[in-house]
Amino acid sequence: MAILPILKYPDERLKTKAKAVTEFNDELKQLAADMAETMYKAPGVGLAATQVDKHIRMIVIDVTEEKNDLKVLINPEIIEASKETKPWEEGCLSLPGIYDKVKRPAEVKIKAQDLDGNTFEMQCDGLLAVCVQHEMDHLEGIVFVDHLSLLKRNRICTKIRKQKAEAAKAAKEESN
Ligand code: NI
User: Which of 41, 118, 131, 135 is close enough to 59 for a disulfide, judged by CB 3.0 to 4.6 Å?
Assistant: First the structure.
C-alpha cells in the first residue's frame, strides 16, 4: 500500500477527462487500495483517480464516521437524479482549506462496477449523494469551484496564491 500524492488546484491535470476502465486486474485493485489509504490518511470522504493523476474512471468513497464502509465505484453513471436540489458546503482534497456551497440534486441513483467488473446500483442521499456527484465531476475534469460564480472563483484563486506565498515564506525562514 502507498500514499499517493494528490494534485492541487489549479493543476491543469485536474481538467483531464478520465477514460473508462476495461480491465479489472490486480493493478486496478492495487490502485483502489492505494487511493483508499490516501483518502483515509488525508483525511477525506472521497477521492477520484483523477486527483492522483490516474485518468481512469474510478472513485473511492467512505462517508461513515467509523471509516468502515469503503465504496469503490468504477465507471459510475447517474441513472436517476431527484428534481429537488440541496446546497451543501463542499471541500476537496485538491483544494485544502477551501469550502463553499454547491447546489446539486439531493438524491441520485447510480450504476457502477466493482473491482471484479460486476455491475451494481446504489441509491444515494445526504452526504453520500453529494460525495458521489463531487467525485464523478472529477472524472469529467471538473472541480467543485467550477460550479461557483467567477467572482467567488477569483477570490479562491487569490486565497490559494496567498497560501502558497505564505508556505514558501515559512519554508525559507525555516531554512535560514
Ligand atoms: Ni474533490
Answer: 135
